[in-house]
Structure formats: structure tokens, C-alpha cells
Amino acid sequence: MVKEEMKRILVTGATGNIGREVIHYLCELDQASEIIAAVRNVETAKKKFPSVQNLSYRPFDFENEELFDTAFENVDILFLLRPPPISQVEAVFRPLLLSAKENGIDKVVFLSVQGAEKSTVIPHNKIERLIKSLGFRYIFVRPSYFMQNLTTTLLPEILKNQTITLPSAQAKFNWIDVKNIGEATAVLIKSFEEHHNNAYIITGEENKHFQEVADLMSKVTGVDITFKSKNPLSFYFRKRKEGITHGFALVMTMLHFLPRIQGEPEITDDFYRITGKKPTSLAEFLERVKDEIKPSSK
Ligand SMILES: NC(=O)c1ccc[n+]([C@@H]2O[C@H](COP(=O)([O-])OP(=O)(O)OC[C@H]3O[C@@H](n4cnc5c(N)ncnc54)[C@H](OP(=O)(O)O)[C@@H]3O)[C@@H](O)[C@H]2O)c1
Description:
14 helices; 298 residues; binds NADP nicotinamide-adenine-dinucleotide phosphate
């Protein structure tokens, strides 16, 4: 029997939506390797993974260069994620990647976004180009729109007003389950040599606009959930009034407005090719989370 090679894999964004799933699937799939969660707070992070055996922790902060060297020591593969509040590529990601390189890391798996290659202004595009220009061997994971946006960013309004308000009109989004992204990423990391220097577009099989999704949510929860479209400017100011920062309000506006002019997203079979499985459907996802998203009917 061939003994599996032991690798050290460092996972950034470990406590977030994507990172948690990457860790979950990777620890299951690659028990020969050491999986390391790179986290701001080791004690709180430990509480999030009570039953994961082959996981260790290293202190890490994207905004604290002093921690880079110890975090990157003896690491074979870096799973890199851009946390939503961090967009300064030159100030944050260049020093980070240079330190990774100096510490001998030459493999990076970067969580990007579908369409990143076409939009030179978004940070993911700049980070992809930086990774290539620094000579890393890489895999770019480019997922579509997370189903979990319904259970995170959009949830407070759903629970409070049974409403989703966005500047997206009839624009169609491709819906992907974060669990599917985590599973595909874990497979790609484990079989890095087979897949490197490629980009994978992880999509679900459905392109649906928010009215269709609100209708599905109403059906599953038994509570009427309404979709309201706003123009981008009034949406942006509404978010600001709710206390959301300029940067995040702008990202929310662009993320939901741009698909109106970009046309329908591409649907790929990359998830199937990587895992041999079908991606989660919206109906399956909503059934799974229906207790979480059900507003109390008045
Ligand atoms: N939402 C979508 O539909 C969508 C679609 C495609 C791509 N994406 C991309 O997916 C990424 C977001 O992934 P996500 O949803 O998993 O994010 P998330 O749930 O917000 O998690 C962010 C993670 O980053 C960590 N973090 C934040 N600031 C940090 C810092 N200064 N130093 C160290 N760690 C820090 C957080 O750790 P703490 O626990 O310490 O806070 C957390 O683990 C973004 O790049 C986004 O553009 C999103």
C-alpha cells in the first residue's frame, strides 16, 4: 500500500462560511495531513470545531504582518480567502504572499468569485494576478452566488419583515451551496498536483432571480415572503441608514445590481467533475434551513 504523503495545509478565513466547510471536508478527506486553522483568536476558534480531530491552530491576522512568518512556517499549501472587509490588495495581500514565498510555500488555493477574470476592478481579480505574477503554483476556486446569503446577510430583513429588498430587479443569479464549495475545494487541495494552474467555476444548476427564490421560500416555510427591488442609489442609502459601512453598502449594491447588466451567469459542471456529485438544489437547501429562515407569522 502506498503511504499517503503528510502535508501541512494552512486555512485562512477558517471560522467563516467557506473556511468552516473547507476544514470540515478536508479533515475528513485527508487524514494523513495536518490541517491548520489560521485564526485571529485561537480560543474562540477552538470552540467552533469541537469534534474535529486532526486540526491545529496558529494565530494569524491579515492586518498584522508580524504574525505572517510564524503562521507560514513549514506550510505546504496555503488556502487563501479574502475576508469581506479587506480589499487593499497591495497593502495586505502583497506582503502576505511575499512572506508565504519567503517561507517556502509555493502552492496557493485561492477562493475567488465567478467572473473574477473579467472584472479588473474587483480585489479577487487583482489577487489572482498577484498570485500568478509571484510565480506560485495555484488553483483558483471561483464560486457563484452563495445560497447561504439567505441565512446570513439577508436573514435579518427576512425574519423581521418577511421581505428581501435588493437592487437586482429581474437579474438571475446562479445559486451555490457553501457546503459544495467546501467539498470541491477540499478535493482540489488534496489532489493539488492533478489540478494546479487552473481555475474552477463552482456553480449550482439553477439560475434564478430573487422573485423566484422568494416564492420558493414562501412555499417551503408556509409564510409569505416578498421580494422588493430598489434602484441602486436608494438601496445604497437605505443600507447606510441602517448603519452599514460605506464599503460594505457599496459591495452589496454592486453585487446585486451588476448582474442586471451582465447577463445570465454561466452554469458549469466543475462541481460534478471534481466530486462526482450533483450540487445542492435550491429546494434542497431551503428544506434544510427552513426552520432558520421561517419568519414568525403574525
Ligand atoms: N457571498 C457570496 O455570494 C460570494 C460569492 C462568491 C465569492 N464570495 C467571496 O467569499 C469570500 C467570503 O467568504 P466567507 O463568506 O466565508 O466570509 P465570512 O463568513 O465573512 O468569513 C470571513 C473569515 O475571515 C476571517 N477574518 C476577517 N478578518 C480577518 C483578519 N483581519 N485576519 C484574519 N482573519 C480574518 C474571519 O475570522 P473571525 O472569526 O476572526 O472574524 C472569518 O473566518 C469573499 O472573498 C467574497 O467575495 C462571496
